[in-house]
Design a protein that fits this description.
By secondary structure, the protein is of the alpha+beta class. About 25% of the residues lie in helices and about 25% in strands. It has 3 helices and 5 strands, in the order βαβααβββ.
């Protein structure tokens, strides 16, 4: 019995170094580009982008409860220098139905996630 299905893909933008080598300025540029792209989504992809820097406690609590929020403190991310300048230049987008997410500058520059109940991903 399949209750839900999740597909995740990690991607990095051309012209930017991978996480351990990216600067704060470049990380902010990546986030700005992703926010701009997410703001063009319509229909079932339309949603909200939440920057981690300055996120309200209410939004943070809700995203944690929904198991969407990635957090600082992972020892492996710390060991490879991915937690620099936390939480600047990081955020999470999710569509209104909470079936499509984009994590920005956690491990990869983009972590794109599609989730659906059952086994029928569309």
């Amino acid at each position: 019995m399949i209750i839900s299905t999740r597909i995740r893909v990690g991607r990095n933008l051309a012209g930017y170094p991978l996480g351990p080598g990216i600067t704060k300025k470049q990380r902010d540029e990546v986030m700005a580009k992703v926010v701009e792209a997410c703001n063009t989504f319509n229909g079932d992809l339309k949603g909200t982008f939440y920057p981690l820097d300055g996120m309200s406690k209410e939004d943070q609590k809700k995203l944690i409860e929904d198991h969407f929020l990635f957090k600082e403190g992972d020892r492996f991310l710390e060991a490879c220098n991915l937690n620099r300048d936390w939480p600047s230049g990081r955020g999470i987008f999710h569509n209104n139905d909470k079936t499509f997410l984009v994590w920005v500058n956690e491990e990869d520059q983009l972590r794109i996630i599609s989730m659906q109940p059952g086994a029928n991903i569309y």
